[in-house]
Specification:
Blueprint (H helix, E strand, L loop, with lengths): L15 H4 L13 E2 L2 E4 L3 H12 L4 E4 L15 E2 L7 H8 L1 H24 L7 E9 L2 H17 L4 E3 L10 E10 L2 H14 L3 E3 L4 E6 L4 E5 L4 E4 L1 E4 L16 E13 L7 E4 L6 E7 L2 E12 L7 H15 L1 E15 L5 E4 L7 E5 L5 H16 L7 H4 L5 H5 L1 H20 L13 E7 L2 E7 L5 E5 L10 E3 L4 E3 L6 E2 L5 E3 L13
Parallel strand pairs: 1-11, 2-3, 2-12, 3-8, 5-14, 12-19
Antiparallel strand pairs: 4-7, 5-7, 6-7, 9-10, 10-11, 13-16, 13-17, 14-15, 15-16, 18-19, 20-21, 21-22, 23-24, 24-25, 25-26
Bound molecules: FE2/S2 (inorganic) cluster.
Length: 513
Amino acid sequence: MKPEQENNIPNYSSSYWREHEATREFPSLQEDIQVEAAVIGGGMAGILTTYFLTKEGVKVALLEGDVLLNGTTGHTTAKVTAQHSVMYDKLIKNEGEDTARLYYEAQVEAMNTIKSLISEHEINCDYKNQDAYLHAGTEYGKRQLEIEKKAYEQLDIPGELVYDSPLPFDTKAALKMPDQAHFHPVKFLQTLIDEIIKNGGLIFENTTAVNLKGNDDSIKVETRNNYSVTCDKAVMASHFPFDDTTGFYFSRLHPERSYAMAVKTEKEVPEGMYLGVDEPGFSLRHTEIGGEKLAIFGGENHKTGKSEDTLRHFNNIKAFADRHFGVQSVPYRWSAQDLITLDEVPYIGQAVSGKANIFVATGFKKWGMTNSMAAGLLLTDLITDKPNRFADLFAPTRSHLELKDGKSFIKENVDVASQFVKSHLERGSIELDELQKDEGAVVNIKGKRTGAYRNEKGELLLVDTTCTHMKCELEWNNGERSWDCPCHGSRFSVSGEVIEGPASEPLSRVNLE
Ligand code: FES
């Protein structure tokens, strides 16, 4: 249905991070080239991997299908923390104490590296030390925090339970992890992009990689515009791995969307970073503009393609902000898509067994700032043949996944399969004539489920709503004006172009005649 500028929420999605920094522009690839390593994906993980590799003297080409930093990195809440919701108790129980400890240590190493890069390159990226809090408003949530605190003790993670959090509403308890941070990721990465160029790295935007071919001696990355990058090693840091011919990542990752908005509030928001453990689990941090605090609220997660009205989520966040802090205005709002692995630990390393020179970094859950840094450090070590103690932790081919996470695997796939059946049984919901300007919906055209969007000029854009990945049916996302796939998270523009994989082919256009 039609997105309204309701309650002063911006009509179109605009990320605070993207609006405040103009990124440099780079050309698209216009010839076949040869390098030592190709990195596909210009988000934080791809940029950091490229940066570290070029620092090691490796000749690298970074390919991005869109422009740099326009994916999840540009649409984050940018918390630099090892407090990834309630996670450590679960990790201990499911994967063991050693794994849980390693995960924490990988996050700490990532945080320290971010800090040292800021210092080394004198990056002004609004980095600010903050305590992180998980807070609970229910007895159940409080119990979860008490259990998580015990996991902190077991793993020697600094933290304390507090009963008087700085939040202006009642909390039963909060679990504080001190000395975490937040920052401006786009400002941070801009400097590293400049460093990549200084180090001799190559960057190509609007260059979509579509195929990975070859063997261990030589890999060929083919692009949509028929050029290629020949390399010794290739990294897929494209959020969902752009080439999933043998890795079956579609069955090992599930996509979730979440929402964020920057708000000028009547009451000043407190120092610190907050995440509620009760549903729907709103998050809060702030940034400063000209000495004034701008609050950033987030939350309202759901599986991609499984919300009938995505704008509703922004209204819910705004209502929460208004209730507790008073909303003066909402200058920015944006949403992001996150990929979650079977055991909630990212996949970073060799993408599939038997192909030693093809690597992947994906499945950062909602914690892309530190996990991207962990990916950059680990992939650089793997590519330059250095040992790294986190290699087994993040190995995408870790064998225990097949055993311990079998139930999850089946659940995800049954879920996907039922969505497939359900959506194929559904047929159009409204008539074409009812569509207003800037409104999209599934319509029924001659008995065929069709995606329709009427643009501001009144022109109709009609697409076949069958996803080009594995034929699930797409749903309309009215907050972002996109066609989203509930199965593995592919997203398409109103004219059918791929915004986000695993799909690589655009939707078929439907002609009324
Ligand atoms: Fe896999 Fe759509 S993303 S079927």
